[in-house]
Amino acid sequence: xxxxxxxxSAAIFAFLSPITASMLHNGSTIAILLRALAGAxxxxxxxxxxxxxxxx
Length: 56
Description:
Distance between the termini: 66 Å
Low-confidence stretches: none
Helix content: 55-70%
Shape: rod-shaped
Number of helices: 2
């Protein structure tokens, strides 16, 4: 069973309080997002801003 489905099922059947269920649900969502960001990778260096010459 999926982790989030287990959390929500436990809340439906009153094994978890609503606050505990929401904290576990939101925590798992944040963990999934952080893992996706880590897998995406970041550039080695930030891109340098281009300086455009002002036209006079």
